[in-house]
Design brief:
The chain is of the alpha/beta class and about 350 residues long. The chain is built from 10 helices and 10 strands. About 5% of the residues have low confidence. Bound molecules: 5'-O-[(R)-(carboxyoxy)(hydroxy)phosphoryl]adenosine (KG4) and zinc ion.
Length: about 350
C-alpha cells in the first residue's frame, strides 16, 4: 500500500510517500519512497519565532510544488499510483493546518483516493517505524516488526513534551507531559536569551560542542517527582538570572551555558523516560519530535539504557525524520488510522491524544 502523507502543522510544508507491506500477522515493513520538506524558517529567523500568517501564506505557495516533487521522486510515479492520502489535521496552527487539510481533501475528491486524517504527535512516534534506512549511527532498524510492544514513546517537539504508553498499534495511553514549556520551546526561548539564531535547539547544540556542561549548575525541575510530568520554564528563568549577572557574554560563556542547558534538559528527559520504561516493563523505547535530533539526547538515552543494564530496545528515527515531515504522517496512517469521507475531515488545532 502506497500512502502520500501531507504535513503542514507548523512552518514546514512537507509531503512524503511510504510503501507499507502487510504480512500474515499484520503490518510489517515500511519503505520510504520520498520525503520533500520546504521550510519557511528563514522568514521567521528575523522575528525569533514563527509568525503564523507568514507560515500559512508560504504553505499556500509551496504545497502543490512539494506534493508534485514528492510524487516525481517516487520512481517517476503519478498520483494514480498512490493508494491513500494521509494529512495532519492537528495539533498545530489553524491557518497552516487548513492549507494541508484542504489540499488533501481536494486531491481525495478529484482523484477518488481514501483520505486518512492523522494526529501530528502520533506521526512523530511512527517516524520510528519507517525502515529500510540502514545508515543510522547506532540504531539500525530495518523492519517495523523489530519494534516490540508494549512500548514507551517520548515525544519532544517545539510545542509538546509527552510520555505515552502503547500496548499495540493505535492504543495510546498518555502518561504525562509538560506543565509549562515544551523541551523544544525551552531550547528556543533560551536560544533567544543568548541571541542565538532561531530555532534555538540546533543553535544551542552547535554552540554546546565547544562548551563545558559542568560550568553552570542549572536546575533539573521535577526530576524526582513521583509522576511522568515535566517542567522547563524554571530552567529558562535560571538561565535568565545567570545571564543578568554576567557583564559581557562572550562566546566561551555562551558555549558553557549552552552545554549546561543541554545537559540539564537531557538529564530530565532521560530520567523520566527510563523511569516510565522500567515501571511499565516495556520492550521498546521510542523517541520522536524535533528535539530527538539532538545528539546529546540520543547518546544520553542510549548510554543510560546500557549503564543500567536494561533489556528494552531503543529506537530513534534518522535526524531528518525527527523534525516535521510528511513521511511520518503517512507511516502513522498506515499503522493506525482509518479513512474518513473527505467532507467529514476538519482541522483540530487543539487535538491531543484522543
Ligand atoms: O517536531 P518539530 O520539528 O516541530 C514541532 O512539532 O514543534 O520540533 C521543532 C523543535 C524546535 O523547538 C527546535 O528548536 C527543536 O525541535 N529542535 C532541536 C534540534 N533540532 C530541532 N532541539 C534540540 N536539538 C536539535 N538538534
Ligand atoms: Zn512536530
Amino acid at each position: 500500500m502506497i500512502i502520500l502523507g501531507i504535513e503542514t502543522s507548523c512552518d514546514e510544508t512537507s509531503a512524503g510517500i511510504v510503501e507499507g507491506v502487510t504480512g500474515e500477522e499484520g503490518p510489517r515493513t515500511l519503505k520510504l519512497l520520498s520525503n520533500v520538506v520546504s521550510s519557511s524558517l528563514p522568514l521567521h529567523a528575523k522575528t525569533g519565532g514563527i509568525v503564523p500568517e507568514i507560515a500559512a501564506r508560504e504553505q499556500v505557495r509551496f504545497i502543490i510544488p512539494v506534493i508534485k516533487k514528492a510524487i516525481e521522486q517516487c520512481s517517476n510515479s503519478t498520483i494514480n499510483d498512490i493508494d491513500a492520502i494521509a494529512v495532519t489535521y492537528g495539533p498545530g496552527l489553524l491557518g497552516s493546518l487548513l492549507v494541508g487539510v484542504e489540499t488533501a481533501k481536494t486531491l481525495s475528491f478529484v482523484f477518488n483516493k481514501p483520505l486518512i486524517p492523522t494526529n501530528h504527535l502520533i506521526g512523530h512516534v511512527y517516524a520510528n517505524f519507517i525502515g529500510e534506512i540502514h545508515n543510522s549511527k547506532f540504531i539500525i532498524q530495518n523492519s517495523a516488526a523489530d519494534i516490540k510492544f508494549p512500548l514507551i514513546a517520548l515525544i519532544v517537539s517545539g510545542g509538546h513534551t509527552d510520555l505515552v504508553y502503547m500496548k499495540k498499534h493505535g492504543s495510546i495511553k498518555w502518561l504525562g507531559g509538560t506543565r509549562d514549556d515544551a523541551a523544544g520551546e525551552a531550547f528556543d526561548k533560551i536560544g533567544r536569551l543568548l541571541n542565538l539564531p532561531y530555532p534555538g535547539g540546533p543553535a544551542i547544540e552547535k554552540a554546546a560542542l565547544s562548551g563545558n556542561s559542568e560550568k553552570f549548575k542549572f536546575p533539573r525541575p521535577m526530576l524526582d517527582s513521583n509522576d511522568f510530568d515535566f517542567s522547563f520554564s524554571g530552567l529558562k528563568t535560571a538561565v535568565l538570572r545567570e545571564i543578568s549577572t554576567i557583564e559581557q557574554l562572550n562566546n566561551r560563556t555562551i558555549a558553557n551555558i549552552c552545554a549546561s542547558v543541554q545537559q540539564a534538559i537531557t538529564d530530565i528527559l532521560v530520567n523520566k523516560t527510563l523511569k516510565a520504561a522500567t515501571q511499565f516493563k516495556v520492550k521498546s523505547i521510542l523517541l520522536g519530535g524535533g528535539v530527538a535530533a539532538n545528539q546529546k539526547l540520543r547518546d544520553g538515552l542510549k548510554s543510560s539504557i546500557i549503564n543500567n543494564e536494561l533489556s528494552m530496545k531503543l529506537f530513534i528515527p534518522e535526524k531528518f525524520l525527527c523534525t516535521d515531515n510528511g513521511a511520518m504522517i503517512a507511516a502513522a496512517a498506515f499503522f493506525t488510522s482509518k479513512a474518513v469521507p473527505f467532507d467529514k475531515v476538519n482541522t483540530n488545532p487543539q487535538l491531543y491524544f484522543a
